[in-house]
Amino acid sequence: MKMRILIAGLCIWALSGCEKLLSPDPENFKSIEQMYTDASYAQGFLVNAYRSIPGSYDNSEYATDDAVTNQRSNGYLQMATGTWTAANNPVNLWQNNYGAIQYINLFLENVDKVKWAEDEAAAQLFNRRMKGEAYGLRALFLYYLLRNHGGVTADGKLLGVPIITEFQTKDSDFNQSRATFEDCVAQINDDLDRAEEHLPYEYNNISSPAQIPERFSSITNNVETYNRVMGEYSRLLFNGLIAQSFRARTALLAASPAFLGSSNPNFWADAANTSAEIIKYKGGPNALPANGFTYYTNAAEIDALSGGINPPEIIWRENISSINTTQEAQNFPPSLFGTGFMNPTQNLVEAFPMANGYPINDNSNSGYNPNNPFAGRDPRLATYIIYNGSTAGVSNSVIYTGSTAGRENGDGINIRETSTRTGYYMKKRLRMDVNVDPASTTGKAHYNPRIRYTEIYLLYAEAANEAWGPTGDGGNGFSAYDVIKAIRRRAGVGTSNGDQYLEECKNDPVKMRELIRNERRLELCFEGFRFWDLRRWKLDLNETARGIDVNGSSYTPVQVESRTFQDFMNYGPIPYSEILKFSNLQQNKGWN
Questions:
Q1: Strand extents, DSSP E, 193-313
Q2: Cα(first)–Cα(last) distance of the chain, in Å?
Q3: Where would I find the SusD-like N-terminal domain in this sequence (predicted)?
Q4: Over pLDDT 70: what percentage of the chain?
Q5: Which residues contact 411 (CB under 8 A, 6 or more apart)?
Q6: CA quadruple 374, 379, 385, 389: dihedral positive or negative?
Q7: pTM value?
């Protein structure tokens, strides 16, 4: 295949992050054939795909009942209040993901011709690993396309997106029809199968030939060679554990009410069994790290990270960002020199139970006092949300969020453009030892998670409850009840009374479903899940976002922001520009 690629705009950017050069010299053009002798150039196609992975902290909570933002021009705010169209879609991943798939397909078509190393065994291992990464990444991008753009058409068909497994040239037929949802799921799983065949479960150094996985031992028995390719040096790259996680995510999506069809009766069990393998690998329901729910602020743990090592809570993460203040500058209250972007809602605050495990609306058992609403609550409330009277920042400053009490320092509700609109500020994702005072700025190390073990545990609980009920284990040795008990105990919920509310739920699959969904809401808040969970569960998207104005002992409810989603918006649109260009593309129902 003869082709000329603009290396200044493509490979230089992919490999080094340099800006695109607008007028490249002729020597900056490279042919595909140069991949075969330039391993770094070849690997650049995969590097570019990695850089296209959708971010975890997407702030899509702004379009849910969990949060609003004081950024009035924010795309998610506009989406939630009536401007979401097929031409104006903040969650559009079409161009990004198909662009990444193009890179991957080009790489896969040429990978076997690349001279990866002088040593033949190392060259074979590099070939295996990078093929595995490519297949895994292609599955990842198709998963996100399916989540964001799959849906039901006007004639009632459940469709996914076009499946593209070959590099498209200028002569290719781009007018491709959407595959069925089931075919997309099958393609994702097929690519994940290939990824797992080519990759180790995790990238760890070994000390003896006996530790080399069987599928690689036919290539080498040399420990140094294996470690060079499949060892610690490759951490943070796609691996078998990540592949298993995306298999579980895909099965959960397929099993969810918005996508589950009569032809897919086993998807709940599939999702449960797939995630169960990860839980077994971790060590069982009680193996979640005790500090896992504060992963973002475990200062000593974060500061000690190096060499691609993951904290015990993390399956996959982005690179460490050192001496960073971005999250804090965006989300601290004004008195801490932040711009308070993420404003948690009263809706979310009310979802946190009491410390004894009972929902606050259980008047007989909870002990909730509306005149002292933050007392005796689930410890995660104070950990994840700044409310009136909370302390925050390097000096443990008291934050007053009322329209009167917080007027002087600007933290009060609707005092200024950077003030909260709900009476709350986000605390999760932030390190309290960061100082964004312009006179004495102090940054700290941060990382963004891509997959947490807690997500997988919650995935299992949801799927297992639907497949086998609260206490059924499907032969895995643990149930939804076991997992939720471990998660709540770790958070300090129900520890004083044997978690009596959980004991009530374990005899009722419907009640357990609601508890599991609520635990997922709390544990994964502000991590980009709620927007998609509401849609796949086909729940009400139009719950008005509420707040509270606290001044002394006065608690005044505030209606903050109405939602104007329509029923068909459980599914996102195919981009309008693509519908105009390609006659074979069917739009999802309701989108013009």
A1: none
A2: 39
A3: 57-205
A4: 94
A5: 333, 334, 335, 340, 399, 400, 401, 419, 420, 425
A6: positive
A7: 0.94
